[in-house]
Write a structure and sequence with these properties.
By secondary structure, the protein is an alpha+beta fold. It is about 20% helix and about 10% strand. The longest helix is centred in the C-terminal third of the chain and has 11 residues. It starts with a helix and ends in a 23-residue tail after the last helix. The mean pLDDT is about 90.
């Protein structure tokens, strides 16, 4: 991932880099392998999606947000009008702290 992010950051585009105009999510399917738990899942989000995402921050939701909200945020960052992703009951909306 570091290799990819470094390579994208070294390619100039418009007033920034290719990484500035890209969105990357790194996660695991489950948080704890022995219990298949999804609670307190970790996600790494890299890139700025063309200015749609705030970069260089650490956000801790203490397990209070469904991961569907991150996916809704990414859809919106790419210009896709969506308020839910997957199970509508599992969505509370985009992560405002992530959006620029």
């Amino acid at each position: 991932l570091l290799y990819l992010m470094t390579a994208l950051n070294n390619i100039s585009e418009d007033e920034g880099t290719m990484l500035d105009n890209t969105g990357i999510i790194l996660t695991s399917e489950i948080y704890r392998g022995n219990t298949h738990s999804h609670m307190n899942q970790n996600f790494l989000v890299a890139g700025g999606c063309g200015g749609a995402l705030k970069m260089n921050q650490f956000i801790n939701y203490d397990g209070d947000k469904p991961h569907n909200d991150l996916l809704v945020s990414m859809l919106q960052a790419y210009g896709i009008e969506a308020d839910t992703f997957g199970d509508e009951e599992s969505c509370t909306g985009p992560l405002t702290e992530l959006m620029a």
